[in-house]
Design a protein that fits this description.
The chain is mainly beta. Helices cover 7% and strands 51% of the residues. The chain starts with a strand and ends with a strand.
């Protein structure tokens, strides 16, 4: 799925449920227009990348206003992010 990266948020907190440290990055994105979408206008979303993910360092360096293509695994998690040219 193709998105436009419009914001990035560093996340670092202690979970109240597990008392474990949660670190990662949220990529704030706008969805591309899709003929099958029920959304009028632009769809917005945030994509979570854990600091433990092999995509974390790459996600931190993607320039804002860049189009990205995300692939998802069978559980709905992000499997890969590719910068569109």
């Amino acid at each position: 799925m193709v998105f436009k990266l419009v914001g990035r948020e560093n996340v670092d907190y202690t979970s109240k449920k597990t008392n474990e440290q949660v670190q990662g990055i949220k990529l704030h994105v706008i969805g591309a227009k899709d003929a099958n979408s029920r959304v009028e206008g632009c769809a917005v979303d945030s994509l979570w990348i854990s600091k433990n993910s092999n995509m974390y360092d790459d996600a931190r360096t993607i320039p804002i206003e860049t189009n990205i293509d995300c692939s998802y695994n069978r559980w709905g998690g992000i499997d890969s992010i590719r910068v569109m040219k």
